[in-house]
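REQUEST
  id: r-88c1
  op: predict_structure
  target: Aspartyl/asparaginyl beta-hydroxylase domain-containing protein
  payload:
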Amino acid sequence: MRDPTPFQDAPARKRPPLPPALRLGLQFAPEGLARDLASLQARPWTPHFNTDLYHGDWSGLALRAPAGARHAVEVLHNAPGLTDFADLPVLARCPHFKAVVDALACEVRAVRLLRLAPGARIAEHRDHDLGHAFGEVRLHLPIVTNAAVDFRVAGARVVMRPGELWYIDASEPHAVRNDGAAARVHLVVDCHLNDWLEVQLQAAGPAPAAAESAHAPAVAEAMAGWPRVSREADDMTPRILAFLHRIGVPVSTADLPGKSFLPGIEIEAGGLRVDPSRLRYPGDLLHEAGHLAVLPPDQRCQQGAEVSNDPAQEMMAIAWSWAALTHLALSPEVVFHADGYKGDAQWLIDTYSSGTFIALPMLQWIGLSADPSHAEALGIAPYPHMIRWLREEDATHDAIDH
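RESPONSE
  id: r-88c1
  status: 200
  body:
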């Protein structure tokens, strides 16, 4: 996220039109999202300010808000024209919500939870200038919902399930009613459209054939190279790439006809070169990035395809990739798959899942993370939370000495 570059494309009227609702390829673990939500239920939720628009309880809890906002309504509301937003402290305490925001390689504006109580309904309305055509995109991620929720966009019912990420064109007429016995809660994220988000939207569903634009070939080229091994792989690869981009690990595509240690991936000059046609496991991107991340900067920028056989570096890369998959709310099998780790993948999953974090002392020594006792002294969350994702020049002992 936090891509400061606005979407520079043809005028809004020439962008390829999209359906009013699209399910994006990104998906998140519902269990983790539900745990974050449960941790916030005791907090005060703010009723939506437009009381003429709804009946019953429609309320929200802001996680990212306009910078400098003080009043509860200001904090929750994304007013037109606002461009300066800041994370609220509560977001850092919700690792799964934070992972969603961090997976979005675009400028993220308002982020809030919106709750619609049983029996509540929101009348049909439009949020003018809030849609793909205007360069402002609203994303919905259901946290808890039920079969009796009726969400209508442009007259059509949209059924969204927990963990799915949806684009909703809020400039179209839309209405919601909750006829179920449980509350419906969505994580709602407003974003500024850029090339990365355009790719996600175009990949989610084809634009009408007659609506080509100068941007469409670039979108097609960006997506065409990546493998279609499975729907699960298609869902996770953009999240991993966005994460690596955000933390500063360069990734580029290349034709890699020769044999590489991991299929379709080579390390070169401190970055990853990826052959999409040969990439077998998207999670391998995280493991190889881990090898780069634990190196001092002067070594990282010179690292080539021949990775050190040092067992300590390998174990640190494993610990780093476990922290990364936890941060991204990915299944452990994404990284620790059966074809890798010399047959020890399941053992590593079982070991880390039990709380035995091999190589954590080494990550702590190079300043990337902290064990529970040192984390408490620092006032931060312990591993698998990371203090930083890339080793710095003089970071050794930081997590221990301060």
